[in-house]
Amino acid sequence: DGGITQSPKYLFRKEGQNVTLSCEQNLNHDAMYWYRQDPGQGLRLIYYSQIVNDFQKGDIAEGYSVSREKKESFPLTVTSAQKNPTAFYLCASSIEGTSAHSYEQYFGPGTRLTVT
Amino acid sequence: QKEVEQNSGPLSVPEGAIASLNCTYSDRGSQSFFWYRQYSGKSPELIMFIYSNGDKEDGRFTAQLNKASQYVSLLIRDSQPSDSATYLCAVTTAYSGAGSYQLTFGKGTKLSVIP
Question: What is the DSSP letter of A70?
Fold first, then answer.
């Protein structure tokens, strides 16, 4: 059964702690993405990766870090430098991300992070 | 700043009616257009994509694209209460001048289908 998994579904952390969100896909997609969604807001791109061992900053990368050591995995670390980390975090993947006719992106179930 | 605009709603339609959702975008170079459905507390689910001017139909859904007017819409025929959700419009935009294309999302239109 192909798809994207994110874990955990809910995550609670104290302010000042780093936290890592997991994202795994078995769709054999080259490109992976992390978005953040706040209430009443659209999705904002944090980081994206078009190929293993390469990733690029999105619109709101400050306070976040990623790695792409395997094609299937794209974990996101929310660091203590992120001023407003409480949000719904969504991981997505697409076949590739370099075509003007951009292949459609498919989303995982999301992780809801609460920092107090 | 490339933008995608949607009316936030809520848009209320009676069951069985046609729901019409609209989206405008600012980047004339955009070439791919997507509609996602997002139920409350869930992740977005792709329901339609369109690349060429005109209409594209899939079951009860029709996507319409007019690149000259920079306008894309989604029609839902025979609306059902299960269609009640937020609908996100997403548009491909060139990103960072590095040969990559990313999706820019609108904030979504909340649709409510009244039984």
Answer: B
Q: How far is B77 from chain A (nearest CA, A)?
A: 23
- Best residue in A29, A43, A93 to probe B by mutation, most B CBs within 10 Å? A43
State the best of B101, B104, B107, B109 to mutate against chain A, taking most chain A CBs within 10 Å. B101
The closest of A72, A89, A45 to B102, measured between CA atoms, is A45
B9: closest chain A residue by CA: A40
Residue range A23-63, pLDDT digits in tens: 999 999 999 999 999 987 889 999 999 899 999 999 899 99
pLDDT at B84 over 70: yes
User: Which chain B residues are within 8 Å of A89, Cβ to Cβ?
Assistant: none
Residue-wise pLDDT for A74-95, tens only, equals 999 999 888 899 999 999 999 8
Judge whether B63 and B54 are in contact, CB under 8 Å: no
Expressed in angstroms, the distance from the first to the final Cα of chain A is 36
Across chain B, where does the E strand assignment appear? 4-6, 11-14, 19-25, 33-38, 45-50, 54-58, 61-66, 71-76, 85-95, 100-105, 109-114
